[in-house]
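Example 3.2
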Amino acid sequence: MIEREFVAQKTKEYYIKKYVESKLNKVGVSSIRLKKIPLGEKIIIETSRPSLIVGSRGSNIKELTKALKKEFHLENPQIEIIEVRNIFLDANIVADRIASSLERFGTARFKGIGHKIMENVMNSGALGVELFISGKIPSARAKNWRFYQGYLKKCGDIAIQGVRKAQTSALLKSGIVGIKVAIMPPDVILPDHIEILDEPIQVVEEVAAVEKAVEQKPAKKKSVPKKRVAKKPVVKKETAKEVVKEVVSEPTEEKQESAEETTLKDKDNTEDSPKSNDEVSKEQ
């Protein structure tokens, strides 16, 4: 049941806003807000032309309060009017100006209207602006014309909350022309924006003294622990002459040994061998 009450209250506020907009058409209305107060309902209207809404001696406001009481059964509606200071930073007012100028001058000067409005928006301090005019402009075939200048966010929280958007329509002889306006105001805080603050003189002097002290002191080298490497066995390098001597001496020694062995063997064989018959006969 509570949800239905909330929905009914919001729908009632929506119809009240639409009714006030229809009554205050082409008066440069920026926004309409409703606020609950102890005395009743408070309707806050932000506009660029407050004198047209008030009328002579408040006649227009009196008629509007009577109509609200009758149509929506409001007990004590109070209307508050706030003047918009910079009209070219308000997307709703800019869209209404484009629509009124198109209805007044026609489609022949739509490019001049778009560039003039865009120039006024950028001169008022906006970071970026984008205008879309879609319809049968300038020929009988529908087209979509885009005017843009500056920096404008298209995605993220800033594109949803920071960028001011509005759309309206203009009734021309060729048909209805749609108008979309997107303005990025100068007071938007971007996440990548950085401000450099001016440091006081004392802090700068202290930083300079510390830098001098650091420069005068020699920087201590950090002792890095040496890696232990296994020592390789030392191998003596032999010269070419020593190698040749060893190669030449080895076979000679072997030959001498073999010759001595052969002489000893011959002696043994002669002593041990039996005497022949001739030798025996000579001895006798």
